Amino acid sequence: MEYIIETENLTKQYGTQRSVADVNIHAVKGKIYGLLGRNGAGKTTTMKMLLGLTRPTSGEIKIWGTPLYGNEKKLLPRIGSLIEAPGFYPNLTATENLDIFATLRGVPNRHVIKDALDLVGLPYL
Ligand SMILES: Nc1ncnc2c1ncn2[C@@H]1O[C@H](COP(=O)(O)OP(=O)(O)O)[C@@H](O)[C@H]1O
Ligand SMILES: [Mg+2]
Hints:
Elements: E1 3-14, E2 17-23, E3 26-28, H1 43-50, E4 58-63, E5 66-67, H2 72-75, H3 94-105, H4 111-120
Antiparallel strand pairs: 1-2, 1-3, 1-4, 4-5
The protein binds adenosine-5'-diphosphate (ADP) and magnesium ion.
């Protein structure tokens, strides 16, 4: 079975508190998954680890079969993400916001910005 996201005993500890403990995810292509849990269950921390925004204390993450850590530059440009709130700059245009994200993520092909804007019917400005 080929997994899009695979984790093995993914764990994050803040001080003495284990916020995420031994999580094993096996997400297959073409399926939609949800993380369910009460406040403080560790959903956001899990997402942050999957996106390389915080380091796991222990455990493994593979995206498309490739270990995330050490391969961020290859993997992260292929992932879209939005955690809790959209982190856009309200004083900039959609194009300018996408341009900043594309730069931060190392997206080499700027045509994707126009393509994305066309898709949702926004002008390129
Ligand atoms: N940066 C941090 N430093 C210390 N504790 C944190 C940090 N981020 C989250 N936590 C703690 O980790 C636990 C899981 O939090 P979180 O992943 O935000 O849960 P959820 O998104 O499921 O509500 C909570 O107890 C939270 O207080
Ligand atoms: Mg959360």
